Here is the input.
Amino acid sequence: MRYSKQRELIINIIKGRCDHPTADMIYSSAREIEPNISLGTVYRNLKLLSDEGEIITLETVDKKLHYDGDISRHSHFICEDCGKIIDLFRPANTPREISDLGLTVSGEKCIYYGKCQECQ
Amino acid sequence: MRYSKQRELIINIIKGRCDHPTADMIYSSAREIEPNISLGTVYRNLKLLSDEGEIITLETVDKKLHYDGDISRHSHFICEDCGKIIDLFRPANTPREISDLGLTVSGEKCIYYGKCQECQ
DNA sequence: ATAATAATAGTAATCATTACTGATAACGAT
DNA sequence: ATCGTTATCAGTAATGATTACTATTATTAT
Here is the structure.
């Protein structure tokens, strides 16, 4: 993978913030520094970085992909009303522990990724 | 909520199979029994049933929503290559336990849903 | 410096999902 | 049982996030 100014900018943006922005939000931030950067470039690099394991993608309920620059092992809480995404850093997140953070939990989805027996 | 023949058909289809079909797959099955059923009707009812908690939606990597008629507490494994979705019914699913099923785990995403402090 | 070719900007295309509209069907009230 | 209200429907159009395409530019090995 060659160096590119645009990709470095995108990495810096996503690693430098604590929320979980969409491609569009990252595009907005990028344009403040590199006004000619293209939305396609943002999407392509986010996909690339995600494939390389440098960032994490979150498929949420708003039909947009959200990106997380923090690849340390942690879970997420998504508010069904406002869509806010909250990091959960404790090693084991039981519904009880999350309730203690002032959050009301109504459901959870845990998905593991990898290769099935046939595809290995 | 009023009774409707179409909705009952959709419920029966999704509850009667063990995989995790997309709206399109459910539409195909439905048309075999009710040839005039509309794709919009399928989408509307799937959303409705999901909101009511009668079925579960899975935001996967193929940009399509998948539906699960089994709302008992369980996790899922998604193959990064073929996209297959496998149910994981054991009470605690550690990467180790999943490996024992012949699956290679490369990552996991755990998302909790509910209401944040501001939205309660 | 040059050649080879990733990567980009800008734009067009894709396609899952949602919105819309006039017709139909469920169901409580009469 | 019929009527009126309105949820639901079939069919189609619109939406919008993401991807694909193309001519140009930038990186890097030689």
